[in-house]
Amino acid sequence: MTNAEPPTPRTVVPIEHALLIADAFDQAQVTELRHSVASCAHAAGLREERLDDFVLAVNELITNAVRHGGGQGWLRMWAEPGLILCEVSDHGQGISVQRLDNRNRPAPDTAGGWGLWLARELTDAMEVATGPAGTTVRIITATAVTEQHTGRHRLE
């Protein structure tokens, strides 16, 4: 290369997120997987109530996958700067639009129906892709928050 030649453009490769867990599971692995989620989320920066809330939300999703999604599922959890993300997928029959659109708290005496509601309430964001071939639920929680005067968590 001479000084007269333009420099070759560099390709910038984005840094991949830090994959923490990628596992298939069934009922026999739910407890072990919940403990792994707690350990990895703590190592990635979640603490105290935020950690407990995230682990409970993931537990609800993996339990739903086992109960309603064909008896097994797949979990992927990763960290991005300031965030912990988790996806739980299954091959069940999907979730009805009516159930997805219902954001009301289940009645206290209701035996089921708490899983998605809890996951939505306990995390900062939740996305659902569902259909007759299965469901994938992604939850996101920030590792750092501040308390507003309302007591709700706010992303920094």
Please render the helix and strand layout as text.
Elements: E1 18-26, H1 30-43, H2 48-68, E2 72-80, E3 83-90, H3 97-101, H4 115-122, E4 125-131, E5 134-142, E6 145-147, E7 153-155
Antiparallel strand pairs: 1-2, 2-3, 3-5, 4-5, 6-7
Helix pairs in contact: 1-2, 2-4
Q: How would you portray this structure in words?
A:
- With 156 residues, the chain is an alpha+beta fold.
- Helix content is 31%, strand content 31%.
- It has 4 helices and 7 strands.
- The strands form 2 sheets. A 5-stranded antiparallel β-sheet has the order 1-2-3-5-4, with helices on one face.
- β6 and β7 (153-155) form a beta hairpin.
- The longest helix has 21 residues, at 48-68.
Average per-residue pLDDT, rounded, comes to 86
The Rg value, from CA coordinates, equals 19 Å
Residue share in β-strands: 25-35%
The computed structural class is alpha+beta
Total number of helices:
4
CA-based shape: globular
Strand order of the largest sheet: 1-2-3-5-4
Summarize the structure.
The chain is of the alpha+beta class and 156 residues long. The chain is 31% helix and 31% strand.
Question: Keywords, please?
Answer:
4 helices; 31% strand; 5-stranded antiparallel sheet; alpha+beta; disordered C terminus; two-stranded antiparallel ribbon; single chain; 156 residues
